[in-house]
Amino acid sequence: MNICKINIYVSDLDFAIQWYSEVLDLKRSDDHDNYPTCIDLIHDRNIRLTLHKTERDTEIEIWKEASTIITFEVENIRATMKDLKERGVRFYNEEPVWFPDGERIAFNDPFGNVHELAEVKKQGNETMEC
Fold first, then answer.
1. Where are the beta strands (DSSP E) in the chain?
2. Three-class DSSP labels, 40-54
3. Element spanning 76, H or E
4. Quick one: which H or E segment has residue 2?
5. Which architecture characterizes domain 58-130 according to CATH?
């Protein structure tokens, strides 16, 4: 099996399109555009990110409730954090946390969905998988 699509549920589709475009630099795709129900975002991999309109936001208490988290791999986690903080993103911690594969830090979108940034460490000349 391969993952082909990740659905992100949002209470305000228009604001979500704006937020994901302006804050995370993901653009609206012309493919699979079913506005005002859902739209795809352009991503650099073979996985579709689809925003879906729902009735209300989620209230996940991270690490205490079951949830799905999208992890965005970045080259420089601190520089990306600084940029996202300037765009209004609030992170769960002040500093990234070390994991065996590198550093990670979680944040929310405006609808309560939890995402992460990850900077994977290099071993020798190879970069570990995210």
1. 5-10, 38-41, 48-53, 70-73, 97-99, 102-108, 114-120, 122-123, 126-127
2. EECCCCCCEEEEEEC
3. none
4. none
5. Roll (3.10)
Give the position of tokens 């630099």.
25
Domain locations in the chain? 1-56, 58-130
Query: 81: exposed, middle or buried (C-beta count within 10 Å: 0-12, 13-18, 19+)?
Result: buried
Q: How far apart are CA 36 and CA 130, in angstroms?
A: 33
The pTM of the full predicted model, rounded to 2 decimals, is 0.87
User: Could you tell me whether strands 97-99 and 114-120 are parallel, antiparallel, or unpaired per DSSP bridges?
Assistant: unpaired
Cβ contact 39:84 at 8 Å? no
The domain made up of 1-56 is a member of CATH 1.10.20.10: no
Q: Judge contact between 92 and 106, C-beta under 8 A.
A: yes
Res. 124: pLDDT tops 70? no
Q: How do residues 34-81 score in pLDDT, each as one tens digit?
A: 998 889 998 777 788 999 999 999 988 888 888 899 999 999 999 999
